[in-house]
Amino acid sequence: MKLTHLRSFVNAADQSSITGAARKLSLAPSTVSAHIAALENEYGLQLFLRLRDGLRLTEIGRSLVAQAREILDAAAVFEAQARSCRAGATGQVRLALSIAEPLFDLAAFLRHLDCRLPGVELQLSRDESTRILESLEQDKLDMGIVYGADFDPRFFSMPLGCAELVIALPRNWRGKHDSAHEALGNLPWINTGAACPFQQIIEELFAELNIDPPQVLRADDNQTRRQLVAAGFGASLLERNEAAHPDIAVLDSAPLPCPYSLVALAHRQFDPVIRALFPLVESLTSSPEDPRAGPS
Q1: Domain spans of the chain?
Q2: Helices marked H in the chain
Q3: Grouped pLDDT means (10 residues each) for the chain, 296 residues
Q4: CB half-sphere exposure, 180, CA atoms < 13 A
Q5: CATH 3.40.630.30 fits 91-161+259-284, yes or no
Q6: Fewer CB within 10 Å, N or C, the chain?
Q7: CATH says 164-256 is which class?
Q8: How far apart are CA 197 and CA 149, in angstroms?
Q9: Residue 271's CB: how many other CB atoms inside 10 A?
């Protein structure tokens, strides 16, 4: 059994015609006919009924065409993986994530990575966006998924989506600060690092409202700020999913959008592994289900 014979069989079944299959495969009709005859002779089966108006699958042919498609699909996956390995998409890649887990399906990413790029070994970590960018510059990381979209020319980036940020406050403060924007000026505030996109976003809102809330402390780490808010130390800006906590309430105001992106150093964007991973990550933002599916 040869893959060329299976391709002729499947295409002849799809087209119900030797001529149509030949046109689709850019082969001579006699070649397609010979491929099908070779399959039938090899296994002693009749795959088609030859009729005046074309071909019709026999019952045996109908039962085998699905198997033939699976074999061709598996061969295509093998070929794609082999080409990736030949192109140099092998080795270790160090990836760090800053975004909240629901924004990126890590399990789906690992399944796709194992299927499409089996020669790539992943070293995964979690850190804050600003520290991930610093680690990229120091060659401690290869890629990062961080909050933000506008990066300096040292970085190559690809937008992945947009997070929703909310103003989170201790739940026992609820009722004391019912009015969203009027309350902000009086709330003790837990800031992020100055370079964090969250801080830039909240400072723009404060400037728009002409308020200057009292700052009680600063914490770069998202989880630390979440714990501080839950413990009653102050209000802070959190990603919507991270604000889901029994001791945290969300101020009644419109969410603030914050983009997140996949980044690498600009001069490394053509490294074989990085070049292979960028479209893989991008494809998961729209179709994380089937590891065999190509990027959309």
Answers
A1: 3-86, 91-161+259-284, 164-256
A2: 3-15, 18-25, 29-43, 59-86, 106-116, 129-137, 180-184, 197-209, 222-230, 272-284
A3: 92 92 92 93 92 90 92 79 60 89 83 82 90 93 93 90 92 65 79 87 90 87 90 92 91 89 88 83 56 36
A4: 12
A5: no
A6: C
A7: alpha beta
A8: 9
A9: 18
